[in-house]
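Re-running the complex after MR caught last week's input typo. The corrected sequence lines follow. Everything else is unchanged.
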Amino acid sequence: DIQMTQSPSSLSASVGDRVTITCRASQGISNYLAWYQQKPGKVPKLLIYAASTLQSGVPSRFSGSGSGTDFTLTISSLQPEDVATYYCQKYNSALQAFGQGTRLEIK
Amino acid sequence: QLQLQESGPGLVKPSETLSLTCTVSGGSISSSSYYWGWIRQPPGKGLEWIGSIYYSGSTYYNPSLKSRVTISVDTSKNQFSLKLSSVTAADTAVYYCARHSPTDIVATEWGQGTLVTVSS
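Corrected-run output:
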């Protein structure tokens, strides 16, 4: 089974900061990687799929990159409404798995 | 606009079978090449993919749950269902149903989630 590992588990940053979250797959998954945002008490929301394709309606400050085993989610300028937990998800071969999540807070 | 709504018992006894249904409105469950799936989240913890069913009926399950999970579709009712057998307290979670896009199997629409507690 392919395992997904995110780092860090939590981070605190200031408004306007550039924030990067990393996701590593235990085996290569090409670009079958998505990122979700879950705000406290809310349903998860798809941000990015195919490693770097922004879902419709998602602000352009969010971006994704990577291929194979190493992926990143970047927020170019952190906003207060970005406080949330972020999850990566792999979906190759129709089998899915989530990373453990990264909790993002405002400093 | 597509909407998904989970329903089922909020309390299940240990060793019994958890059964949930997801009712789809605003679109036909059998009309397009979508995947329909279940994801859960234990209180205070992360997301766990349970499994998915393709509109044709093919199923895909999390290997760690595969022996206990069954996902099925009832096109006449525009619903799909989850059965999880031999539950324990570790199966206590918010259970979400979701629609996955046909090309990239990512959850684009979600239900609101339903909390299922396993307790005697």
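None of the earlier attempt is carried over here. The interface with chain A takes residues 35, 37, 39, 46-49, 52, 54, 60, 62-64, 96, 101, 104-108, 110-113 of chain B (CB under 8 Å). The longest strand of chain B covers residues 18-25.
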